[in-house]
């Protein structure tokens, strides 16, 4: 299951809680991602984890005391509320709002080559396309490739134009790759991927 590390951080004095503090940390700058689990960690100073719980206005929260995951259902805002249970009563400590963003489109590559100069041998050896998260987002998510088009240009003329299903090369594409010549341009276009939340993506094309 895809996970994103996001610790919530803010300090508040709750007058109704006898000036007791709770701490929520967030190195991801209060950003959660839609449709996948976002890890949350919460502490209330002077209170055991078993007495603390969270709720959200957007999606659901699961997990064990002090260590939770939040799965927002839509982009926008998610309010995270911290609660404490004492003597059979549930008391609200406070809440914080988090930005919820759609998962960014994945990066694409052949092996770990995202474009430019490449050898015929390397192309064939990789067996297909790789879709992976943008490293700047910090997301640990899995993407699948539904389909893509392979286009080979030779002297400004299209000598091969074919659609493949899934992330792997099919027989027709492999045969075309074996016939690649110096100076040919190889394009992977109309790439369709799916993110961990099931959303359909159209990442950028690859050019070699």
Q: What coarse outline follows from CA principal-axis ratios?
A: rod-shaped
Largest pleated sheet:
6 strands, mixed
Q: What is the total tally of β strands?
A: 17
Binned, the helix content reads under 10%
Q: Any low-confidence stretches, pLDDT <50, length ≥5? A: 1-19
Provide the β-strand percentage band: over 45%
Written as H for each helix and E for each strand, in order along the chain, the element string is EEEEEEEEEEEHEEEHEEE
What keyword list fits this structure?
208 residues, mainly beta, 2 helices, single chain
Write the layout of secondary structure elements.
Layout lengths: L3 E2 L5 E4 L5 E5 L6 E3 L4 E7 L7 E5 L3 E5 L2 E5 L4 E11 L2 E13 L5 E4 L9 H7 L2 E4 L11 E11 L2 E9 L5 H8 L6 E10 L5 E2 L4 E2 L1
Parallel strand pairs: 1-5, 4-10
Antiparallel strand pairs: 2-3, 3-5, 5-8, 6-9, 7-8, 9-10, 11-12, 13-14, 13-15, 15-16, 15-17
Describe this structure in words.
- With 208 residues, this protein is mainly β.
- It contains two helices and 17 strands.
- The strands form four sheets. Strands 1, 2, 3, 5, 7 and 8 form a six-stranded mixed beta sheet that branches. Strands 13, 14, 15, 16 and 17 form a five-stranded antiparallel beta sheet that branches. The chain has a four-stranded mixed beta sheet with strand order 4-10-9-6, with no helix packed on it.
- The protein is rod-shaped.
- Mean pLDDT is 85; it is low at 1-19.
């Amino acid at each position: 299951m895809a996970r994103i590390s996001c610790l919530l951080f803010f300090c508040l004095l709750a007058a109704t809680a006898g000036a007791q503090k709770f701490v929520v940390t967030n190195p991801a700058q209060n950003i959660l991602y839609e449709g996948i689990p976002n890890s949350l960690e919460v502490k209330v100073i002077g209170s055991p984890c078993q007495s603390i719980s969270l709720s959200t206005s957007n999606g659901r929260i699961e997990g064990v005391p002090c260590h939770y995951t939040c799965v927002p259902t839509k982009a926008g805002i998610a309010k995270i509320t911290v609660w404490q249970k004492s003597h059979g009563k549930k008391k609200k400590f406070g809440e914080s709002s988090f930005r919820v963003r759609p998962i960014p489109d994945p990066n694409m590559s052949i092996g770990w080559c995202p474009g430019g100069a490449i050898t015929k041998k390397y192309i064939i050896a990789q067996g297909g396309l790789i879709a992976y998260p943008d490293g700047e987002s910090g997301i640990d998510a899995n993407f699948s490739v539904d389909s893509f088009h392979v286009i080979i240009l030779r002297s400004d003329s299209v000598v091969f134009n074919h659609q493949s299903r899934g992330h792997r090369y099919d027989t027709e594409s492999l045969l075309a790759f074996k016939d690649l010549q110096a100076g040919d341009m190889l394009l992977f276009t109309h790439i369709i991927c799916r993110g961990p939340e099931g959303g359909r993506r159209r990442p950028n094309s690859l050019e070699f």
